[in-house]
Design goal:
By secondary structure, the chain is mainly α. The chain has five helices and no strands. The protein has two domains: 63 residues; 65 residues.
């Protein structure tokens, strides 16, 4: 919870500074936005490690293959990076670039999920 409060305070302060800078130096406003996003992502990274440990433990206790558990975590990470990068591109007024980043993130998530799909197909094949 403390990470959320820190991220919220950081985000509000960064947004305020970025708005002030956008009037006189828009490129500096964007730089502040990027720096705040990186710092907030760093705060979340520690929590993501805890989540990863719990998901892996659940996979071990349920007997799920790492081929099933690992892609879920990777897809979450891909989604986070895609969302942040896309929003930063939109803030910079680059909607087409944001759409390309989002498309790339979507394809990466689909490719990452392929081992899960293969495991599911193997399971279905063994039942038949």
């Amino acid at each position: 919870m403390s990470q959320l409060i820190q991220a919220a305070a950081l985000g509000l302060a960064g947004a305020f500074i970025a708005v002030l800078l956008k009037k006189t130096a828009p490129e500096l406003g964007l730089a502040v936005t990027i720096a705040v996003c990186i710092a907030a992502a760093g705060l979340a990274l520690g929590l993501f490690r805890e989540l990863k440990d719990i998901v892996e433990l659940a996979g071990i206790q349920t007997g799920l293959s790492p081929a099933v558990v690992s892609p879920v975590l990777k897809c979450v990470g891909i989604g986070i990076v895609t969302r942040l990068a896309g929003e930063m591109c939109k803030d910079a007024g680059q909607g087409a670039v944001a759409a390309a980043v989002e498309l790339c993130g979507t394809v990466c998530a689909m490719v990452t999920a392929l081992p899960m799909i293969r495991a599911l197909m193997d399971l279905i094949g063994s039942l038949a």
